[in-house]
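Methods, example record. To illustrate the input and output format used throughout this study, we show the complete record for Citrate synthase. The sequence lines were provided to the predictor; the line carrying structure tokens was produced by it.
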Amino acid sequence: MSEKKAAGGLQGIVAGQSAISTVGVGGIGLNYRGYDINDLAYKCSFEEVTYLLLKGHLPNQQQLNELKTLIQQKRQIPCKLKQILETLPKESHPMDIMRTVASIVGILEPETKSGQEYEISIRLISLFGPALLYWYHYSNTGIKINENTGKDSIAENFLKLYHLKSEIDPLVIKTFDVSLILYAEHDFAASTFAARVTVSTLSDFYSGITTAIGTLRGPLHGGANEAAMQYLEPLRSIPQADQFLNSRYQSKQLIMGFGHRVYKMEDPRSPIIKDFSLQLSKTANGDPTLLAVSQHIEKRMIEEKKIYPNLDFYSASAYKQCGVPTPMFTAIFVISRMTGWGGHIIEQRSNNKLMRPVSEYTGPAKKQFVPIEMRNKANL
Ligand code: CMC
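The corresponding predicted structure is encoded as:
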């Protein structure tokens, strides 16, 4: 067996085949099942992209209508899940809630036979937002929300349930919807790869998803949108932004929301979400200072470090202007990436082989065994 030398972080290693998306092929570009991310973001809904990623093709009108009806049904929160959510502390991190929801649904509605992947994916995509917001409102104010907001899209349902309003600004809904499209799929990103490893052992669908949620959470991956907002929030002027950047440069700390393993130039998703974040900044509820600071940081990072913003950087200001609290940012990423994870689990299972790489051993040479009574005398 020929073995390729290990690269740190598996950088540049082709770890399998996939027909779902192209990430940075030739250094640029992102396509889902052959469709350019710009077309999908500006001309499609998240529901169409969900269908595309899970079924392999865009839906026709009837298929889309059926999917929307299914989503409406599948957003109902089971009573037992509500009871559990009511016991969870308000200090819990939303990512812990998401991981727990996936796990509890895996117990209440287990995967019992083959061919259930599409239905379970739609169940989780539809339920994650309502369940998170049920916990959020109950734990903070004792209100038990009604998760059914009729035929609303995933985006509109989330925003209505969070804000407890029956009308949401269409630009806010569109921005949120576009963010879901942009976050939906990204090839063998760490969380997707983790899900594929888990199901390659013939484990169940929900175990693949809980693995993925745990992997997404870290700030080098999905947690970067929350981490970006945490440093952006207190910066209310350009001098403050300069002071922040200079001190990070000096201490050689990472600037979250910048850089990417694959894209070494611009992340193709970044200008799209920036466009919507800028549009929001010009509205009555927008935050032009946040955008001015963000653009200044972007300009300096490109000019001085040649490091470009990734999707997480302008998602932070976009979500903030949608009125969503910072700790929920990565949980929203879960709702979206559930589509990509579902597509990858289906693909992995269609041609499964246990994922079990080898390491390059760097430990001690073979040693003579030392009995326990001799160990304090021996040079171990
Ligand atoms: N801030 C400051 N310096 C950076 C950054 C950053 N955000 N990203 C990369 N660099 C530097 C890095 O320190 C290294 O410098 P040097 O060569 O002097 O040691 C150089 O750029 C190359 O970086 P790298 O660590 O070899 O690149 P990588 O491919 O291993 O890392 C990354 C990719 C995403 C982990 C990294 O860019 C990073 O930590 N970014 C911040 C976290 C972040 O925004 N993550 C979201 C990624 S995109 C969405 C997603 O996948 O969820």
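Annotations derived from this record:
Residues 9, 189, 220-222, 224, 254-261, 307, 310-312 surround carboxymethyl coenzyme *A (CB under 6 Å).
The CA atoms of residues 235 and 241 lie 6 Å apart.
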